[in-house]
Design a protein that fits this description.
single chain, mainly alpha
Amino acid sequence: MIYDIALWQRFNVAVIQKFQSCYNKCAKLFFGYRKYDSVTGMLLDTGLPSFEIIMFNAKHLFKERVTCCRNAIIVKLKTLL
């Protein structure tokens, strides 16, 4: 799990792309794939989610949790936004 990934809105595209590249390289290294093996093939073989799916799910779950939250501070912040 990549913690607090849903809050990475302020990072520019270049930083996110570098992190995605790192995610793919680390997964290949960990599971013994070569440098030029297909990332898609590696993800399908291992059953790992792609970086895009991880980002999407994290953002979706974060929004869902904030929407359902009954904490007084969070409720007040939602009304301000």
